Fold this protein.
Amino acid sequence: MAKDELMNYEQALEKFEVVIGLEVHVELNTKTKMFCGCRNDFGDEPNTNVCPICIGLPGSLPAVNKRAVESSIAIGLALGCQIAPTGRFARKNYFYPDLAKNFQTSQYDEPIAFEGALDVEVPSGNKFTVNIERAHMEEDAGKLTHIGGSTGRIQGAEYSLVDYNRAGVPLVEIVTKPVYGAGAEAPELAAAYVRSIREIVRALGVSEARMERGNVRCDANVSLRPHGEAKLGTRTETKNVNSLRSIERAVRYEIQRQAAILAKGGKITQETRHWHEDRGLTSAGRPKSDTDDYRFFPEPDLVPVKPSHELIESIRASLPENPADRRKRLQAEWAFADLEFRDVVNAGLMDQIEETIAAGAKPQAARKWWTGELARLANADGKDVADLEVSPAHIAELANLVESGKINDRIGRDVLVAVLAGEGAPADIVSSKGLEVVSDDGALLAAIDEALASQPDVIDAIREGRMQAAGAVIGAVMKAMKGQADAARVRELLIQRASE
Amino acid sequence: MNEIIKKNASELVDLMASGELSATEITKAHLDRIAEINGTINSYLHVTSEAALAVAADVDRRRAAGEKLPLLAGVPIAVKDNLTTTDAPTTSGSKILEGWIPQYDATVVTKLRNELMPILGKTNLDEFAMGSSTEFSAFGPSRNPWDIERIPGGSGGGSSSAVASYSAPLAIGSDTGGSIRFPAAVTGTVGHKPTYGAISRYGLIALASSLDQIGPVSRNVLDAALLQDVIAGHDPHDSTSLPESLGSMAEAARNGSVKGMRFGVIKQLSGEGFQPGVKKRFDETLALLTANGAEIVEVDCPSFEYAIAAYYLILPAEASSNLAKFDSVRFGMRVNPGENATIERVMAATREAGFGPEVKRRIILGTYALSSGSYDKYYGAAQKVRTLIQRDFEAAFAKADVLISPTAPTTAFKFGEKVDDPLAMYLNDVATIPANLAGTPGIAIPNGLADEDGLPSGVQLLAPARADARLYKVAAALEALHEAGWGKRMMDFAPELKVGA
């Protein structure tokens, strides 16, 4: 494909105002599909979680999954939306082989949730309010695999396979209003917004929210207009960008690409675009016009969804704390510096640290273990620290062993490795391996005397005030004690000897 | 003719209970009748002899063992071929589904099986129930037992001709704009379109989801009521099915009465402009009702004038979407267009070859009616008319307990008479369509023979939503008054069927 001309990013922002709009699809983690009793698990053997309803056999009818409605209401409420007292499903008609009925059962003019807002903070600390237009329920399509082409796309493929396990999986689509005023931070805002959505649905427990598995998928709309221009520019919609980093890069790329075209007097084609993470660019998909004719009409096979006031209020009452409020509260409680706290948030370690502190660790100690040694070990193993299988209670126990001086930092790190290897609780490892710090003065003095015997000059040096000479003796004592000596006590005893 | 097949369902129940007849004898008699006449009448697209006899044998064995059986156990039945059955092909009268054997039974079929009713086979219909004559069936038309040169009504002409020709005592029909009631009128039989939602649509191959309703077809009112009691009820698979029970229809039919009832004659459907013989019989019926203690009032339903227009926008719109799934990908016919066979071309070639002319006409009409720019003008406007028709009904039912009209403007017409004139064909349903648009129940019963052609004419009774029992009560009484006047049953007027000609 032809390489796009890009304008320098700063220059693009100087010339144009960026407007973005985001559509996020959240796959719900209900046990069964949106309109039938099939298992909601599309990782299974293809076409095993299917029935007459989700493969659209003649005569079959949908029935709404109550749980999915409740999850959708929870998402709407968490985004500050109003919940519609009655809402109809609608059919979105188009032919495609992954769409069993050749229409998608969705919501059109009566979404279950509408008019919300989400406050989002970008890495610079700037905060933006993203207005939510609507959140509506719909069903996913099946999954197509194109065989025989070089690109994995339908073009050039010899044949295609369809897996309907995903057909009918419940989705909530969250659509923002146009987002103005983010300027140079528009790409970061797009990513931060999706991160917030992910956090919220995870906190609600309504989705696994894993982008790499497609539980959360984002379509990013980008348009540019000259500063001061009232009319919105032509937008492109970059589809299914499947990581936060890709969202940021894709938006930035579209800004630079569109700016180069507009600056030359060219026109933006209204179309969908595909993001290629490996090459760092977007390519044209299909033309998309505002008049795409899906022939929406109310779904006659379903009665309207009418959540009762009681249901809505009971869901509202059981909503978990808003993740942004929770962050604010926890940072204050833990007294972390902004940078420290941001590291914790970025590493996705808030839950772990909260639980570690709840298990008795001091906040700073909990933070240091998780963002320090645990992160290093996870990294060395190619894992995400948040995915390490270690209990916060163990980390709290470990932190307290060090804090109380029972073991020192270095031994603590060894104990951690043993804990991760599944050898048990830190205290048990310390006692079974005899790793406790030796603070018996008699044993330490014996070791000091032995070290001094082979380095007689050191005593004189200390007496003359050259304290750096002490290091060699302390090192020798530590070595003799296999690292389990309390170094500070060794130092004190050595100075005591020198003054005798 | 074997006298067994002339018995009504309620009579068969008694004869089995008294031990005079076995379910096997009854089922065999009907299968013999089908073998004798189906080549001529073409009521059945598929006959399921073995399965029917197996159920009958099971009923006889259980009865002999003293088991308590469901009321209609052993009474054979015919099922319209737009209901899914796992043991017989289900075509909906279309080539696109030829040979398709569904993976699941329709809820109604499951209920028939649970009732231990032997299913004789699947009956013919206009393709996807689009038509009033069965001339649009991909498998040839069914014939009217009163005159085989004439149509048996449609779309359910297979079910009506099966019951009228004694090749089934009962049948299942579906009614979207009159597909149960119009065939009943022209074959001298009984057909009821229940309140929308009274019977689960799960497994009914949809024509227009908001209008379709399954219902009973029979030779008398009590039989229809007995069958409705078997197939009615809420189904979690159909969220539009009513949560509450509408009561026992059989009990209502057994307590027939018109005394003190107010019958509303709809100004717009009083028979003006209808075939004279149809109109004459209708007026006589009004007189008969008055003579028996009923009150006749006139009601005005001005929006009924627009019912056909609204219906032919809403129906095609929903149908165009419902029929989109027939794309060759997962089931049914697949046509390979040869070179450059992309999925779009395979879909297009299959739909071109698999759908007949009326189906294509309505898909095109419906697709257009839903298109942006057309939606408000057509589909949206039609929905408003629908609301107005519902209001007309409400106003009418404030003045009358039931409404009454001729079921159809004419008696059975000849094959080919209207098949090339869609508008003339659509007008057959002028009296039946309003009930589908309003979701209200309607029953069609025989109303004597028209003088000019000696063919059956029908009378239709309409009630408010959920008042199906009221219709059975009134219809049973009117049927009894008619039979008392005629000295015999309507079907006894029918000439003997000559087959093999």
